[in-house]
Amino acid sequence: MQFTYLLVGLAPLVSFVTADLHNFAVCANNRDGGDFTLLKEATECACNYYKNRNTGNKQWDQCPDCTFNGMECHSAGWHIGGDEMYHYCTTYCHAEGSVGTKISR
Would the pTM of this model clear 0.90, i.e. be above it? Predict the structure, then answer.
């Protein structure tokens, strides 16, 4: 199932995932042009890859608290690295890219 969102109201809260830490992230297609398609299955796939990640001791090297909430990959401890999420979404989970957010909930 795919969901399409317009970035108009979310622009201040959303950053395309690259070289940054996030507490929420999703896999997406059609990121260029101001709107994108969220890919639920790809996000779940990437979140599972990230949860199993153990590549070192930096904050983004492991995500023991990564959970898929039905729409997003969430890390209360801000373990989601932008480059890493992008890699899982594009390399293993058939997405064109990823989108991350920095939201306090």
Answer: no
Please name each of the domains of the chain with its CATH number. Answer: 21-102 (3.30.70.440)
Which phi and psi angles does 37 have, rounded to 5°? Answer: -110, 120
The pLDDT assigned to 35 comes to 81
Predicted pLDDT of residue 6:
33
CA distance 78 to 71: 17
Tokens of 94: 């058939």
Whose CA is closest to 96, among 8, 47, 37, 20? 37
